[in-house]
Amino acid sequence: MLLPLILLFLVGATSAGDACAQNSLPYDTTYTFAHYKVRRAFYEGLPNGKNEIVFLGNSITENGDWNELFKNKNIVNRGIGGDVCFGLLDRLDEVLASQPESIFLMIGINDIGRGVPVDVIAGKIQEILQTIQQESSKTELYLQSVLPINEQVIWYEYMKNKSKQIVLLNEKLKTIAANENITYLDLYASFADENGQLLPEYTADGIHLSAEGYLHWRKVFKEEGIKL
């Protein structure tokens, strides 16, 4: 299972990197890579359900079997491996078409890997949150912190030495959540060791989660009183 997860993450990073030359900014914000297009088209082809609970994000979200994990048929997975804030914002129409009951958002690690400034990432996530509030006002929003990485395990060069940026982004996300009156879920603290590294039992490649990692995610939700 490890190789598919790695490839899933790298598809977005590699394809977007090829398109970086078309980006006039000093950092890469492209997102229309092959996997993004396929998954987005798939999600757009699915019927809208009632009382949807949406898990929204990148490969860490896409790889989670949320229905099985929480035994709830109303949960829908809207993760796309390799996705960034800019791509997620662009596909919000599909997510909000059902006026979901709740959304659990986690995004930003791929932006960090591309060298997008933390302030830019935080601002784009705030724009995502505000768009959801404006277009689906009854949706209960949960902003999840970006998870730590394990820099002793990870072998993606573009993701190394990024732990400090993750901490800085999470600090900004916590403030944004408070300002927007949104529930902030600090998953980072539950997945990190004393050095701010993703605990090895929760990952195999330093960034994506193992089965034990997803089971721990469920445990954190239970401890936070989140019932799904």
Your description of this structure?
The protein is of the alpha/beta class. It has a single domain (2-223), classed as SGNH hydrolase (Rossmann fold). The protein contains 11 helices and 5 strands; from the N terminus they run H-H-E-H-H-E-H-H-E-H-H-E-H-E-H-H. It has a 5-stranded parallel sheet with strand order 2-1-3-4-5. Helix 8 packs parallel to helix 9 (163-179). The longest helix is centred in the middle third of the chain and has 18 residues, at 118-135. The radius of gyration is 16 Å and the shape is globular. The relative contact order is 0.14. The model is unreliable at 1-22 (pLDDT under 50).
**Global mean pLDDT:** 91
Content-based structural category: alpha/beta
Largest sheet geometry: 5 strands, parallel
* Contiguous helical run count: 11
Strand segment tally: 5
| Spatial arrangement of strands, main beta sheet | 2-1-3-4-5
Cα-atom radius of gyration: 16 Å
Give the N-to-C terminal Cα separation: 27 Å
User: For this structure, what is the CATH class?
Assistant: Alpha Beta
Oligomer: single chain
